[in-house]
Amino acid sequence: MKSLHIFLFFVTNIIYSQIGIGTTTPNGALDIVSSNQGLIIPRVALTSLVAAAPVVNSIAGNPLVKSTLVYNTTTNSIGVNSVTPGFYYWEGVKWVRLNSDINWSTTGNLYTNPTINFIGTLDNNDLVFKRNNVFSGRINDTNTAYGVNSLKLNTAGTNNTAIGVSALENNNTGFQNTAIGKSSLMLNTAGSYNVSIGYSSLERNTTGILNTAVGHSSLYNNLIGKGNVAVGKSSLERNISGDDNTALGNNALYNNQTGDKNIGIGSSSLERNISGSNNIAIGNMSLYNNQSVSNCIAIGNNAQLNNMSGQFNISLGDETLLANQTGINNIAIGYNAFNTGNFSNSIAIGNNSIISSNDQVRIGNTSTSSIGGFTNWSNVSDIRFKKDVNYSSVPGLDFILKLKPVTYKLDYDNIQRLTQSKTQISSAESIIQTGFIAQEVEKAAKELGYDFSGIDSPKNEKDFYGIRYAEFVVPLTKAIQEQQQLIELLQKELETLKIKVKSLETK
């Protein structure tokens, strides 16, 4: 009876091609049921992913059948064809490792070993990232890109790094660029050696090279400009083709388009410059309104703030040359120096020093009580530099006798009102000074028809009188000479009278 059961069992399985182990009702070709034992797959020592051996087909001469399953027991490190312990199935030309708890999972991983576990490739092919099936990054042997559409169109460019959505998106042949931030260097095609850090920094650059942009929209509009450095939000934002500019500070050189070799350091320094070149502005809003002027230097907050067309100006100090718009060839040194007026070829040195006309030099302010050194001031007086020399046109005693020496004190209220300056009140206000009244000296000279160079007459309605006291030496010398002539004449007359008196006495 037992033999009959065995016979019927095999007949049944042969008829239905099903085998049940631990069950009499198999649900497949092979159905193994156990509550405390497992299935042991053949254990072999694989040598390579592409070598079927030592596993062979049981039918001699036939290739290994696809889906053959084994458990590899060894580790064999041979590059991209390395094998490690685990389950493998034969895919037809190579072994494929089955996922296990030591493989990467899309829901997170446990027990990873940083020496052997990684995300990447085992061959010399690019690693590509996609999001929603859209290109979002690439790592190859020369370029690194991370972010949707970053380095998307690159063909021949090498040694580029792009991090951020659309960073270096259109780059084709540009090389050695670094773009970090959304849309940074987005339109670059062939530009090289650029560094772009910040949202939309260098976004429209196409072929410009050697540019550095750090900050939101810095060098945003640059197309072909090269050698520029912009650090700060919107610094050099509108530059198109200007070269070798340096902008440090929010909105520094913001509006520059074609100007070259400018330096703007400080928020809004040279902000409105368009085409001016070779300018240096250091300080918040220094040279702020400059547009097309070149070769100016402004150091200090608001220095040359309103300059628009004046060139070759130099100012050092907060609010120096503040009101100047068109004046050229000026120098202002000191806080608030030369802060009013629109003049040219003038120099103001000192805190609150005032300029009131063209071709003027002012040293010190109304509080200055001493200017000097260990030697006298020298005027150039070479005969080779003079013409129309006239030895008889200088009046002497006639002019000197008309002068009215006075003592006085400075009226600081009037000085402040008339010069519209921030005049400093000091102890000098109480000092009794000695001198002349310029208008009275001018009147005396005009009465004699004498064009006296010692009078510094106003050059405009806001200018004021001045006196060059050194010039008085000339008419004083002439007066002494005339007096000497009179003295000598009187001496001769006296000698004649003495002779006559003596003659009378002897009679």
From TrEMBL:
InterPro entries for this protein: S74_ICA (IPR030392), Serralysin-like_metalloprot_C (IPR011049)
Source organism of this protein record: Flavobacterium indicum (strain DSM 17447 / CIP 109464 / GPTSA100-9)
Taxonomic lineage: Bacteria, Pseudomonadati, Bacteroidota, Flavobacteriia, Flavobacteriales
Protein name (Swiss-Prot/TrEMBL): Peptidase S74 domain-containing protein
UniProt KW keywords: Coiled coil
Domain Peptidase S74: residue ranges: 381-494
Coiled coil spans: 480-507
Matching Pfam families: Peptidase_S74
Record has Disulfide bond as a keyword: no
